[in-house]
Amino acid sequence: MSEHIVQPRIYIMIFLALMLGTGLTVLAAFYDFPGPLNAVVALTIACLKATLVVLYFMHVRYSGRLIWLVIIAAIFWLAIMFAITFSDYWTRNWLPIS
Amino acid sequence: MPEGLAATHEHASHPALRHHLENMEQQREAGTLGMWVFLVTEIMFFGGMFLAYTLFRYEYPAAFVSASNHLDIKLGALTTGVLIVSSFTMAMAVYSTQIGRQKATIICLILTMILGATFLGVKAIEYHDKYNDQLIPGQLIPWRPFNPEVAKPGDTDPHKLHLIEGATTQNVQLFYWIYFAMTGMHALHMIIGLGIMTVILIMAWRGKFSPEYHAPVEISGLYWHFVDIIWIFLFPLLYLLGRHLEHGG
Amino acid sequence: MEEFVIPKQPGSNYLNAEYGLKSWLLTKDHKRIALLYLGAITFFFFIGSLYAMMIRLELLTPQGDLMQSSTYNKTFTQHGIVMVFFFLIPAIPATLGNFLIPMMIGAKDLAFPRINLLSWYIYMAGGIITIYALLAGGVDTGWTFYVPYSTTFSNSYVIATGVGIFINGFSSILTGLNFIVTIHTMRAPGMTWFRMPLFVWSHYATSLIMILGTPVVAITILLVALERLAHIGIFDPAAGGDPVLFQHLFWFYSHPAVYIMVLPAMGVVSELIANFSRKNIFGYKFVAFSSLAIAVLGFLVWGHHLFVASQSVYAGMIFSFLSFTVAIPSAVKVFNWTATLHKASISYDTPMLYGLGFIGLFTIGGLTGMFLATLAVDVHVSDTYFVVAHFHYIMVGGTLLAYLGGLRYWWPKISGRMYPEGWGRFSALVVFVGFNLTFAPQFLLGYMGMPRRYHTYPVELVSWQVLHVLSTAGASILGVGLMIPLIYLVWSMRYGRIAEANPWHLPGLEWQTPSPPPTENFLTTPIVTHEAYEFAPPEHKEVVGKFERQQPAES
């Protein structure tokens, strides 16, 4: 399993995409989307940017399954923490007493 | 890697090979996996703060918008750009060692460090602004407690706190508490990153790296990119959400 | 196992390879680091036990005659903090795990020897800061540091203790990281995942929890310390903060931390049961995967600590249900151990006595945990001695017994000497009797309503005092049972019978090398060709030697 050398061309493309994403998210922030969509747009762009960094700058795209597993585990556990904690807060007021 | 075959390949021993490992491939793999596992702990570490952020944003949306809008979006965007460039130069440093160009490696590493220091410098300016506006929460600075001036309607002085409807200064303080906890932790990671880069730079200077052996550059690069990713999330969450309500509400 | 030829005793082993304090304090050998941990952990266990004795003495009488309530608060807090963070969490992984994982998978060391040493220094730094906090004036928040008491009202050394625990957390993280990387990348040729001893599997699961949980408690404790400094009110409802957020964050780690304590113990017991029954463990894969299942499910149940903390009742119902699911992998283990014992040729050596004790006591602890996971019952027994008894059955009856058993089992390998078997069996029995006498009465006390963390109880309730006296008497017996091994193990290091390489005649890799092992564990890298517990089946044993192999009758 020899390592994969990522060419500078790809790094430059990713870099430009990241800069573009930053510009987009700033612009989008001032635009008044309906409802909670502002947060959705901002977080979607952030997730996309993070994914690009992970896949290319951090070479995960060319790494073995184990590294993928490690990342998925981290996201999964983060999701557990959020989902279960908020299962409490979201349902606090369902009962008139409590 | 194949099941249980860690020890089968015999390579000529490289001077950087540790005695308890069989070959450079195994050493690199262990190092990379180790760093990734460490980054998992970092994700969970910051995760706790993201959770607190989400909860309080959910409970006090108006205060969070008001406080968020007080942050300097230009400086925020600038630091984001600086960090992305530094990630790019870091990636190029890894590439340069992979193809064995020592000089390019050193230049890329120095650029990365300069950009990292720039980030910290801008952060310091921002912190100082908060200090001037008396936005440092609680008694963290004993002689300058949290006591921002609240702007009256029509007042556009950027140094005053513009509260939208439903926001209270007390809840704004919670935002700044989380802001300083998260950006402070992030800055601490940047400082540690600069320390690591210094070590890597010295090693590169002494010609320790080659196309066969460059795992330290790559592994410290993983750390650097990770710190960048944290900021990629912090920037919209702290600076951007609620901008569309600026001067509105 | 026949294919292994155990080499003759080489001149040098890890204990005599180098001499002097420096060779120990700067060692990168996982075996020596394990011994450094062993010494430190024994010290902290001693401190924690002293506090335990003080608690038991105070509760001997209904009045608060030995100490004031504030002193008592500090005593039980410090008992909890020292035992949980400085004994139970590192006990088995940092000593036995550190020593054995590389040997069991046929590696020369852990993947990162320097980080391994660093983790010991971090542990010591955290320990020293905590000891400083205890000496300077102590801490009285309970080991759980509940807010807003810990952030606002307590006048004790919360920050110093918090910093000690925060630092100590990193040693745990680094140990877990080292184990995960070692198990993934350093297995010997032929050592596939399903040939690994179950001890290694359970430590893998433990490491997952260490990696994923510990950082969360680190940030939580950091927030508490900062909150104490700055008084902003992130956990203070009066200032718009949220105390339940603290409990969520704290238990996100601290409930899985219970599995950090008990999973390695289960690994030890799997080894003991299989090896002293001379049988392959019943349902190897089930036992292996149940460790992982416990690690995952353990992260889904923390809300059962918040049943009476104004948590939403709907979340409470979910947490109650999820808590029951943890019983499944735990029960899988208990059933598979007992199934392994079935029709086995069991030898009742000291380690096995501890192992069998574990099965019984862990089952009691686990089943009473089911009572507590039931929402309605929990409301009745929450914060009573029922809870105290329950988790001591897991922590002491489970983890401590497995730790003692494991220490005895691998003692010949660690020290190169045998411990005195008679004293071993005797002290195992004393521990078992003392333990049950200490904690069984506490179930009754809790059920009758004695709250935890109180240093007095009504004089009129004679039955309460009788139970408390029994409990204190049991604690004394338990203390004696723990002192005996301390004495005879130290004695055996010098005067014990020299151990052979494989005194128990077992197939595990760690036994296929001299006792004590050489610095690089094996004289040549082993090549693994058999399963973890490959004993000849019993029917073969009877056949051998009695009948000649017959040629088929027709020719």
Specify the CATH class of chain C: Mainly Alpha
In CATH, the architecture of chain C is Up-down Bundle
Mean pLDDT of chain C: 91
Number of helices of chain C: 16
Q: Radius of gyration of chain C, rounded?
A: 24 Å
Q: Distance between termini of chain C?
A: 35 Å
Largest Cβ-defined interface: A-B, 50 and 50 residues
Strand content of chain A: under 5%
DSSP strand count of chain A: 0
Largest sheet composition of chain C = none
The count of helical stretches of chain A stands at: 3
Could you explain the architecture of this structure?
The complex is a heterotrimer of chains A (98), B (249) and C (555). By secondary structure, chain A is mainly alpha-helical. Chain A has two domains: 1-63; 64-98. Chain A has three helices and no strands. The longest helix of chain A is centred in the C-terminal third of the chain and has 27 residues, at 65-91. The radius of gyration of chain A is 19 Å and the shape is flat. With 249 residues, chain B is mostly helical. Chain B has six helices and no strands. Chain B has helices spanning 24-59, 61-70, 73-98, 102-132, 169-205, 215-240. By secondary structure, chain C is mainly α. Chain C has a single domain (30-508), classed as Cytochrome c oxidase-like, subunit I domain (Cytochrome C Oxidase, Chain A, Up-down Bundle), CATH 1.20.210. In chain C, 57% of the residues are buried. Mean pLDDT of chain C is 91; it is low at 541-555. The radius of gyration of chain C is 24 Å and the shape is globular. At the A-B interface, helix 1, helix 2 and helix 3 of A face helix 1, helix 3 and helix 6 of B.
Summarize the entry for a quick read.
The complex is a heterotrimer of chains A (98), B (249) and C (555). Helices cover 72% and strands 0% of the residues of chain A.
